[in-house]
Amino acid sequence: VQLVESGGGLVQSGGSVRLSCAASGFPFDAYAIGWFRQAPGKEREGVGCISRDGTFLTDSVKGRFTISKDNAKNTLYLQMDRLKPEDTAVYYCGADYATIKFGWGICPDVHSWGPGTQVTVSS
Q1: Which of 23, 59, 74, 114 is surrounded by the most beta carbons within 10 Å?
Q2: Above pLDDT 90, what percent of the chain?
Q3: What is d(CA 26, CA 46) in angstroms, rounded to the nearest whole number?
Q4: Is 41 left (phi over 0), alpha (psi -120 to 50) or beta?
């Protein structure tokens, strides 16, 4: 599994950013895949996932973020609108055939992580 995140940066509160995750080395349309984030001093948390069971977003981003994927391009996206300072974090994508169930959805059971991409939202 090889994943490369891109698209992060500095954005003002209320602004928008689109993240991309280029995938290779595995059957993209057969694996669960998702976005996760880790803010300073906090544990990594799931943001949104696409699995065989459906498409899921954690409650704190519903109505603001959209997760999608393009199987022809082996790419996962996260469109982030109406950003808030609390969205500041390093964003990672992760994929696996196995899944794990969170309270808000079903995500890949990720075992290795890429470098991620920093998103900083200024107030």
Answers
A1: 23
A2: 97
A3: 21
A4: left
